[in-house]
Each structure stands twice: as structure tokens, then as C-alpha cells.
Specification:
The chain is mostly helical. It has one domain. 27% of the residues lie in helices and 0% in strands. The longest helix is centred in the middle third of the chain and has 9 residues. The termini are far apart.
Length: 78
């Protein structure tokens, strides 16, 4: 199972399911990506997954596919 930089299993990601993933079958990985703020942010901060960042959850997380409230919950910062 591939896990995207946001933490979602690629096979369940709405963009992947509808064949609209900008990274195609590879899925979202940390890299400079004009279509994905989350992937670009992770790349610039040197993390593989958002959850690994000390600033998680952040403003970029709010634009991602996972509910910000859930991100706060799993980070223990709520």
C-alpha cells in the first residue's frame, strides 16, 4: 500500500481514485509540486510525511485532504 505525503493511503485518495493525481500512479511524495502544497511543504521541510514535521498540524495542513480537526486530534495538540 502506498501512503501519500499527507498520510492517506493513495488507493483511497479522491484524486487517485478519479485519475486526477498530479503524480499519477506514483502517488504523492515530498517534492516541489505546483499542484500540491502539501508535497511541496514536506519537501522543503525535509520530511517524508506531514506527521513527521514538528509544526504539524499547520496552515498547509488546512488545505489538505484530511480534516484539520483530525490532524489536531492525532497530533495531541487539540
Amino acid at each position: 500500500m502506498k501512503i501519500g505525503v499527507c498520510g492517506i493511503a493513495c488507493e483511497k485518495c479522491p484524486r487517485m481514485v478519479t485519475s486526477k493525481c498530479p503524480s499519477g500512479d506514483v502517488g504523492c511524495t515530498p517534492k516541489d509540486n505546483k499542484f500540491c502544497k502539501t508535497a511541496t511543504c514536506a519537501f522543503r521541510k525535509g520530511v517524508r510525511l506531514c506527521f513527521e514535521c514538528k509544526e504539524f498540524p499547520c496552515e498547509t495542513t488546512k488545505t489538505g485532504p484530511i480534516s484539520y480537526g483530525y490532524c489536531q486530534f492525532i497530533s495531541g495538540k487539540k
